[in-house]
Design goal:
heterodimer; A: alpha/beta; 4-stranded mixed beta sheet; B: MetI-like fold; 2 domains; two-stranded antiparallel ribbon; flat
């Protein structure tokens, strides 16, 4: 064909072919790039295809439920499309596990995934715009004060009366903190997050390592009880490539510890340390406490951890990288959300199956007594926007996930959801673990909840947490001295409080404090 | 006679009317053609611009209340006197603009000169150069996260093959902003190259022949002929790139989230935080306007400097 063309025509044709090829390559690159992102949305397609949400195919999600049958009696919402908005990735898989139920109930599912750190902004924008485009939202309960007090959410009290989600079974702290505002219930729980301490028990119990530690420090190597011990153990296990670890020569470096170093949630790893000093975010009059000497000491500890025993790129570590550093045999110990042990017991996701031990977080000695606190960051709840056109169908889905099939949701390693009901705390449900490991895991989760420390559950939480996170991140990146960074954060908190109406904020904070105290979260 | 005169007069008047009608019809037709574009422009650019200007004089904290309160210039005063994050963020944006535009212009020019010397492969090379330009910035950023990964990224692996220890591209506060810059340079230098190459091909051959006859060296020809002749094109290219880099958001959002610390928190990212994460709409509008003024002034200075520099 080209052979019959004149030279200019041939040139033009060749250019067109080249340009076409370039467009294809660019489109391919864009598609490949965006396929790896969390910004996916779209209606779920037929089983076996890509559902447009989660991190598995729909076929894999449905297969994961194994022999759990679809109930015979399900309500009929024929032809209703329920649009769900939540943080993308493995936590959206839960909507795929139960896809046959949605189909049987006549519900068409449309999922909109948003980035993990952007749930608040995307959902708030949706609420403000009043688009009516979303029927069910998944969000972190720290924002319930903002969402409920601004009238964005539908009160669920009447729905709960009609179809009982058994909220009495929900662990008290989660029930009181996650679900309600001003005497009404606005959300059902989906994920009960708390930080736990995870370490390599095979290395800790290794005789050669035990002996080496004793020789170096003069006492036995044990699970660190204080944050100072944490640093010592972390530094001890930090090795260069070529050195030995548990009798084997390392082909790559091994690190004693790691932190969540990315902007967004690094503040929670600081609060884990600081809260054990017994302090709270604000005093009764909303004077920030985050720049106290105890807070500065806690942040210095975190800075030391980053500098002396963490991987060099730890400031780029979010949940995934922190999880993988442990599960891919790169790090000795981490503080992480309580779903990580489930993934650590799954051989398809972990290189350290059976080698992980779990414990309460290290603490601080206060008046001769060891105090440990576990931050309860994130968590997830399901709520219905006031503007939803399919509120009944949305409630059915929320209740089904939160109650009917919740045991499966929190025990599978294929999502990141953690226990939030008393009835979920039975070792036999956690089949990925050996029974002893499951018992140890659940005992640790229970203990962490008993020593749980809440996020800021008042309007403005996103702003307060961002300011604190920036301070923590500046300190751990060496941009600012910990004391200056925390002083700046305290000043930013004052500005936020004044901007949002100080009197109003004080009232809300006092109510929150009362609740924290009644739950035993603040002593 | 009178009849002939009046007939002539009548014909002249008719012609005049027809001419006037033609003239007046033409603008009407032109207006009708332009109207949809004007309407769209008014709706999506002018109206939001005016609305956001009005917004910048209000305190609107949607976390607390949807009711705006008139505060006059207070948002602007706060930005100048009481915001420790905004000015450093603006500084980072200007850093990206300054270095980004300069490097892309130099590299792009060099690439264009090389490209124009190519014979047959020029079409293919030009087409290949278009690839990064056509990729969505968010995709570039996602690929950047992989490429710049310190532990398992291909870039550090390749550097290790030649005995170099690659830096911590995204997790080191002194390197992270440069990494963002690097991603931008990779994506947009070809754009500059293609524009300049197109410009080079339109330059008149006679003046170069005359310069050669006069014994001008290559550098003299480049300095006194090529650069001045390309001046209008270069100014437009610089302006487009400067405004585009100033608005950089996708790569920062995906690659660093503004961190480590505040190392990559630029003005556009900070405005996003104020507007769409903290929902302080009034304040976000005010700092947007400050940026508009700064970038306009900076662009004017930049253009003058280029004009002066190129003679």
């Amino acid at each position: 064909m080209l052979g019959n063309m004149k030279v200019p025509e041939r040139k033009r044709a060749a250019r067109l072919v080249a340009l076409g090829a370039v467009v294809l390559v660019a489109l391919g690159a864009t598609a490949l790039g965006t396929a790896g992102s969390n910004h996916r949305q779209g209606p779920a397609s037929a089983a076996g295809g890509t559902p447009g949400f989660g991190d598995l195919t729909l076929k894999q999600m449905i297969a994961a439920r194994k022999r759990i049958p679809v109930p015979k009696n399900l309500p009929n919402f024929h032809g209703q499309t329920v649009t769900v908005m939540g943080d993308g990735g493995h936590n959206m898989n839960v909507f795929g596990f139960w896809y046959p139920e949605w189909q049987k109930a006549g519900i068409k599912l449309k999922a909109i995934e948003v980035p993990f750190a952007d749930v608040y902004s995307k959902e708030k924008a949706e609420f403000i715009a009043g688009t009516n485009a979303v029927d069910l939202v998944v969000f972190y309960p720290a924002y319930i004060g903002d969402f409920a007090s601004n009238g964005y959410l539908l009160p669920l009290d009447s729905y709960i009366k009609k179809s009982n989600p058994h909220l009495n079974d929900v662990i008290t702290a989660f029930r009181k903190l996650y679900l309600g505002w001003a005497g009404h219930t606005y959300a059902l729980p989906e994920d009960g997050d708390v930080h736990i301490f995870i370490y390599r028990k095979d290395l800790l119990n290794n005789p050669a390592e035990q002996a080496a530690f004793k020789k170096k420090y003069g006492h036995a190597l044990t699970v660190p009880k204080t944050w100072d011990e944490y640093l010592r153990v972390g530094q001890f296990f930090t090795r260069k490539a070529g050195e030995t670890l548990a009798g084997k020569t390392l082909s790559r470096p091994f690190y004693g510890c790691a932190e969540y170093g990315q902007r967004g949630f690094s503040f929670a790893w600081f609060v884990d340390r600081w809260a054990s000093s017994g302090q709270v975010y604000f005093d009764q009059n909303m004077k920030p406490q985050i720049n106290s000497p105890q807070a500065v000491a806690a942040l210095k500890n975190m800075v030391a951890s980053v500098k002396t025993c963490s991987p060099p790129d730890v400031l780029n570590f979010g949940y995934d990288q922190l999880r993988d550093s442990l599960l891919k045999n790169q790090t000795f110990m981490v503080v992480q959300w309580s779903d990580v042990p489930k993934k650590g017991a799954d051989p398809t996701q972990s290189q350290v199956v059976g080698k992980l031990g779990y414990s309460l977080l290290p603490g601080t000695v206060v008046n001769g007594k060891l105090v440990t606190r576990s931050m309860m960051p994130v968590g997830r709840v399901l709520a219905i926007p006031k503007t939803s056109k399919h509120a009944d169908a949305a409630y059915f889905m929320a209740k089904y996930i939160s109650d009917d099939v919740s045991r499966f949701n929190v025990s599978t390693p294929l999502d990141g959801l953690d226990p939030y009901r008393y009835s979920q705390l039975k070792p036999q449900y956690y089949k990925e673990f050996k029974l002893a490991d499951a018992k140890s895991y659940l005992a640790t989760v229970k203990g962490a909840l008993e020593h749980g420390y809440p996020e800021i559950y008042i309007p403005g939480a996103a702003q307060y947490e961002d300011a604190l996170d920036l301070a923590v991140n500046k300190a751990i990146s060496g941009q600012e001295d910990p004391a200056k960074a925390l002083n700046d954060a305290a000043k930013a908190w004052d500005d936020i409080t004044n901007k949002l109406n100080k009197k109003h904020q004080i009232e809300l904070w006092r109510a929150a404090l009362k609740q924290y105290k009644s739950l035993g979260l603040i002593k | 006679m009178r009849t002939t005169k009046s007939r002539h007069a009548g014909a002249g008047a008719a012609a005049l009317v027809a001419r006037v009608q033609r003239r007046s019809r033409a603008p009407l037709f032109a207006w009708l053609m332009v109207l949809p574009a004007v309407a769209v422009l008014l709706a999506v650019t002018v109206y939001p611009l005016i609305y956001s200007l009005r917004e910048s004089f209000y305190r609107l904290e949607l976390t607390y209340s949807p009711i705006p309160h008139w505060v006059g210039l207070q948002n602007y005063v706060d930005a100048f006197t009481n915001d420790p994050r905004f000015w450093p963020a603006l500084g980072r944006s200007l850093y990206l603009v300054g270095f980004g535009v300069a490097i892309e212009l130099v590299l792009g020019f060099a690439l264009a000169l090389a490209l124009n010397r190519l014979g047959r492969p020029r079409t293919l090379v030009t087409a290949l150069l278009l690839v990064p330009v056509m990729i969505a910035p968010v995709a570039v950023a996602i690929e950047g996260v992989v490429v710049f990964n310190e532990s398992w990224g291909p870039l550090n692996y390749l550097l290790s093959l030649i005995g170099l220890n690659g830096p911590i591209w995204l997790g080191n506060r002194t390197v992270a902003l440069k990494t963002i810059l690097l991603a931008d340079i990779w994506q947009w230098t070809p754009f500059v190259a293609i524009i300049v190459a197109a410009g080079l091909r339109t330059l008149p051959g006679e003046v170069y022949e005359a310069a050669a006859v006069d014994g001008a060296s290559r550098w003299q020809t480049f300095r006194t002929l090529t650069l001045p002749l390309l001046q209008p094109l270069l100014i437009v290219t610089v302006l487009i790139r400067a405004m585009d880099i100033f608005k950089t958001f996708d790569t920062i959002f995906v690659m660093t989230g503004g961190g480590p610390g505040s190392a990559t928190e630029t003005a556009s990212f900070y405005t996003y935080l104020q507007g769409l994460r903290f929902f302080s709409f009034g304040y976000a509008a005010a700092i947007s306007y400050i940026q508009l003024i700064v970038i306009s002034v900076a662009a004017t200075i930049l253009v003058r400097r280029i004009r002066k520099g190129l003679g």
